Amino acid sequence: MKRSLTGYEPRIYRDFDESDGFRTFRVVVETSDLFVKALCSLEKETEALIKKFRAEIEWAIGRRPEFLRSLVPIEAGPEDSPIVQSMISAGKKAGTGPMAAVAGAVAEFVGKELLQWSPEIIIENGGDIFLKVSRPVLVGIYAGDSRFSGQVGICVQPTPLPLGICTSSGRVGPSLSLGVSDAATVMSKDVALADAVATAMGNRIRSGRNLKGAVEWAMSVPGIEGALAALDDKMAVMGDMELVPLHAEDAVGMGSKPAPITPDRCTREGPGTDKGRPPQTDSKN
Fold it and tell me: 33 — phi, psi (to 5°)?
């Protein structure tokens, strides 16, 4: 989640290695800063798409300032563009304002358009990830000062539909959070929804005692496939999240939000395994 289209913070957690077969590039348009992995160079196409969707969001803000400021759901109008409608819809389901979904929505709409040129795409936008891959991918989690930071990853298997993995944090990054979580991570095929629900889940976390309840709430939202919350030495996980321990070489490029690491590092031996080793997690709340 970002509360505005102004303000910028450098992304220190990105991995530009291309040994995985992807072409890796970064595209910045004003405060939008997208890290992209694709099968071919698509910098110009990505830039044009960012400008298009930013213009649609900025138009919505100019027409009704509450689109930017509201922390509660608002109503969509017939004149709203698809990306604006998706943000409003996500906010309604999560109980947030539409801007809670802006980073996920931009990643999703840009990513879906780029699929016409590259059948595999990974986009990270402010810690919110859109991906469509035909190989397993390991998404690492950096959770501030938590013991799990850089130690645990989510193994994403190939899926016929794109997937979103979005994170909110009350301790890391510039985005607004009313909670204190090190990481509140949500997985859904609706990336804007994952972003908004991650924000709302993070808002519910005021201590380690809240982790389980916050994750249970997130999983109650239709369309959410997995949820993870971490604070200090505690973690709660529910849903279809295959956690694996990160090795030292995997942790390179990690930072304040989830970041794609390397394909072909996951196993199909079953959830919670990495070549037979269980993930080092703590689900106590």
Answer: -135, 100
The answer to whether 13 and 124 have CB atoms below 8 angstroms apart is no
Sheet holding 234-239, edge to edge: 23-29, 32-38, 121-125, 128-132, 163-168, 183-188, 224-231, 234-239
Residue 204 contacts residue 192 (beta carbons within 8 Å): no
0.85 exceeded by pTM: no
Domain extent listing, the chain: 23-263
pLDDT at 180: 61
Q: Which amino acid is at 243?
A: L
Nearest-10 crossing angle of helices 102-114, 191-203:
160
Residue 256 makes CB contacts below 8 A (sequence gap 6+) with: 11, 12, 13, 127, 142, 144, 169, 172, 173
The torsion of the CA quartet 176, 262, 235, 142, rounded to 10 degrees, works out to -40
Q: How far apart are CA 80 and CA 185, in angstroms?
A: 28
Specify the fold of 23-263: T-fold (3.10.520)
User: Are 31 and 9 spatial neighbours (Cβ–Cβ below 8 Å)?
Assistant: no
CA dist 102 and 96 (Å) reads: 12
DSSP3 helix / strand / coil % (the chain, rounded to 5)? 30, 25, 45
DSSP string covering 178-235, please? SS--SEEEEEESSHHHHHHHHHHHHHT-SSGGGHHHHHHHHHHSTTEEEEEEEETTEE
123/106 Cα distance (integer angstroms) = 10
Rounded distance between C-alpha atoms, residue 162 and residue 108, angstroms:
9
Average the pLDDT over 87-109 and give the result.
97
What's the pLDDT tens digit per position in 142-178?
A: 655 656 666 788 999 998 899 999 998 744 444 545 5
